[in-house]
């Protein structure tokens, strides 16, 4: 499937989780075998160009795409999680969402200085989640090679909040 076909599998839900937000629902894409496979193939191709040792994915939708990409590229996967889920010492970052506020954590020993990684998530809106993740990577002293998203909400200009590395999205709204 090409990107146009993949886009038809994403469902729009108006006024979720708050009035005025159009929620781009990827569950309808995930349940479509060919659509899901093609999405992972495209993400993996873009990530592979950045030669990562690791894929980083953010809880929870970032885990769905990030782990599949890591498997395909034979990379390790590092989970960035919501608060109080990780058992060993963590780095922490607070951030604002399109519809709220939250915190992200990553194990302090997940990455070492010089490790090269790509961040994968389903969607960039304000960029708050991805920006917080970049700060966690910076805390660890690792090399952030780039970001690859399935969906980008261009009107929110999230990429303006990210460091100066390659940023790629398959589908733009
Ligand atoms: O660019 P931003 O404004 O930060 O928004 C994008 C983030 O919002 C969603 O996650 P959410 O926090 O809703 O969590 P979920 O993956 O557990 O649904 C989405 O999966 C991204 O991670
Ligand atoms: N509009 C949106 N649709 C789906 N996930 C989101 N995460 C942040 N904004 C979103």
UniProtKB/TrEMBL annotation:
Alphabetized GO MF terms: adenine phosphoribosyltransferase activity
Annotated compartments: Cytoplasm
All residue ranges annotated as the Phosphoribosyltransferase domain in the record: 27-160
Principal subcellular localisation of the protein: cytoplasm
EC numbers: 2.4.2.7
Entry keyword Magnesium: no
Signal peptide positions on this chain: none
Catalytic activities: AMP + diphosphate = 5-phospho-alpha-D-ribose 1-diphosphate + adenine
Top EC class for this record: transferase
Keyword annotations: Cytoplasm, Glycosyltransferase, Purine salvage, Transferase
Biochemical pathway: Purine metabolism; AMP biosynthesis via salvage pathway; AMP from adenine: step 1/1
Gene3D superfamilies assigned: 3.40.50.2020
CDD domains for this protein: PRTases_typeI (cd06223)
Keyword Cytoplasm carried by entry: yes
Function according to Swiss-Prot or TrEMBL: Catalyzes a salvage reaction resulting in the formation of AMP, that is energically less costly than de novo synthesis.
Complexes and interactors: Homodimer.
Family assignment from sequence similarity: Belongs to the purine/pyrimidine phosphoribosyltransferase family.
The protein's name: Adenine phosphoribosyltransferase
Taxonomic source organism: Roseofilum halophilum BLCC-M91
Lineage of origin: Bacteria, Bacillati, Cyanobacteriota, Cyanophyceae, Desertifilales
């Amino acid at each position: 499937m090409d990107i146009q076909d993949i886009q038809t599998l994403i469902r729009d839900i108006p006024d979720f989780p708050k009035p005025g937000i159009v929620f781009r629902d990827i569950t309808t894409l995930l349940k479509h075998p060919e659509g899901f496979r093609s999405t992972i193939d495209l993400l993996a191709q873009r990530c592979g160009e950045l030669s990562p040792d690791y894929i980083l994915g953010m809880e929870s939708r970032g885990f769905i795409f990030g782990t599949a990409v890591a498997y395909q590229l034979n990379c390790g996967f590092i989970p960035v999680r919501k608060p109080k889920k990780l058992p060993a010492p963590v780095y922490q970052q607070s951030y604002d969402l399109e519809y709220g506020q939250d915190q992200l954590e990553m194990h302090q020993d997940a990455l070492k200085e010089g490790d090269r990684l790509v961040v994968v998530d389903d969607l960039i809106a304000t960029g708050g989640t991805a920006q917080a993740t970049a700060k966690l990577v910076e805390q660890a002293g690792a090399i952030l090679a780039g970001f690859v998203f399935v969906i980008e909400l261009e009107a929110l200009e999230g990429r303006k909040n990210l460091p100066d590395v390659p940023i790629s999205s398959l589908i733009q709204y």
